[in-house]
UniProtKB/TrEMBL annotation:
Record keywords, A-Z: Hydrolase
EC number: 3.1.-.-
Residue stretches spanning the membrane: none
GO MF, one example: hydrolase activity
PANTHER family referenced in this protein's UniProt entry, alphabetically: ALPHA_BETA-HYDROLASES SUPERFAMILY PROTEIN, CARBOXYMETHYLENEBUTENOLIDASE-RELATED
Protein's name according to its UniProt entry: Dienelactone hydrolase family protein
Superkingdom as given in the UniProt entry: Bacteria
InterPro entries: AB_hydrolase_fold (IPR029058), Dienelactn_hydro (IPR002925), Dienelactone_hydrolase-like (IPR051049)
Length: 233
């Protein structure tokens, strides 16, 4: 693992990105890993390593850098960590975050060992931002794990630019049944969107070792993700 800096397009500074490269050296696709509300923490580093183990380059930008660079929170370490995470989420400028992701995608295409193709993969807040990258960037593909608030973004769906794979947790306490219904109905038949609902699991079911971890659902979702990335990157 290494860290690079990318300049923000608004001239306000630069932000760190974790980079994990695969053991193989041939040109390969890059996956922009989009964080949960807990920053580039141990879970995001593990997920980035997993993507690299699949043979892709993983790059994870620090989206909270404008508020507090280098945030690493633990969702299983008590309420104080959650309170801090939600404070950062509430203070997060999503449009500036989208611009940072655009800058990351552009830089990712030129990374050493990259083949020029770039996808995004986000979790929770990152899952929401992956929906935005599908609609508003030139990413070659996008993956959303239990994205929050997407029911309020469906107006962007007609202009979807890149293919989007969505993983939805049936019992997600942050995406209740009415929201899921709106998402599934609003995206039904969309040629660039594929949605999968995983029965009996909660938000963050794919965070290995976390309180909501579900091995069966995560394995199925991750297998679909792997096939999707191979197809487009």
């Amino acid at each position: 693992m290494s860290t690079i800096k990318i300049a923000a397009t608004d001239g306000s500074g630069s932000f760190d990105c974790l980079v994990v490269t695969p053991k193989t050296q041939q040109p390969t696709g890059v996956v922009v890993m989009i964080q949960e509300i807990f920053g580039i923490n141990a879970a995001m580093r593990s997920l980035s390593a997993w993507v690299a183990d699949m043979g892709f380059i993983a790059i994870a930008p620090d989206l909270f850098w404008r508020q507090e660079p280098g945030v690493q929170l633990d969702p299983d370490a008590g309420q104080a960590q959650w309170d801090r995470a939600f404070a950062l989420f509430n203070g997060f400028d999503q449009e500036k975050g989208l611009e940072d992701l655009k800058a990351t995608i552009a830089a990712a295409r030129k990374l050493p060992g990259a083949n020029g193709k770039v996808g995004t993969m986000g979790f929770c807040l990152g899952g929401r931002m992956a929906f935005k990258t599908a609609a508003h960037t030139d990413a070659d593909c996008n993956v959303s794990y239990y994205g929050v608030g997407i029911e309020g973004m469906l107006g962007d769906a007609p202009g979807m630019r890149g293919p989007l794979l969505m993983h939805i947790a049936e019992l997600d306490k942050f995406v209740p049944p009415a929201a899921q219904k709106a998402i599934l109905e609003g995206l039904a038949g969309h040629p660039k969107v594929t949605c999968h609902v995983y029965p009996g699991v909660d938000h963050a079911f794919a965070r290995m070792g976390g309180h909501a971890w579900d091995a069966r659902a995560a394995t199925i979702a991750n297998g679909r993700t792997a096939e999707f990335l191979v197809e487009y990157l």
